[in-house]
Amino acid sequence: MSLRAFGPVIVLALALAGGAEAATCGGEPPAGAAEFRGPVLHVLDGERLCVALGPDPSEWVPVRLAGGATRASTAPVPRGALMAAAFGQDVTCRIVGRDDEGVIAECVSDRGSLRRLSQRRQAIKAAQAWR
Q1: How far apart are alpha carbons 128 and 64 in whole angstroms?
Q2: This prediction's pTM
Q3: According to CATH, what is the number of the domain 24-130?
């Protein structure tokens, strides 16, 4: 096989391998928007994820889910549980605030609130199986 046949595979491998963490979630929600919609394409930890507004990571909005571990009544969620509940889902996020890393938002999919879904026992079991 020629190098030309491997071109797309090489590009994909380089994109996935090099600087993935630095390149993710580089976008902003639309100016003045109270909410935005898109697929979840990256889960950073148990309360932060990226919602894509376009195909390039510079168009992915960093989101911290509202009602996270900073509230006394809410325990931290494992990354895998949020991954099981959110990854690949189309979500609508309503902005409730901002922090140094992006927006704080309440995000829901057609299955319900991502925060609630990731705290369900089924999501935690799926996360353990995913590991």
Answers
A1: 22
A2: 0.73
A3: 2.40.50.90
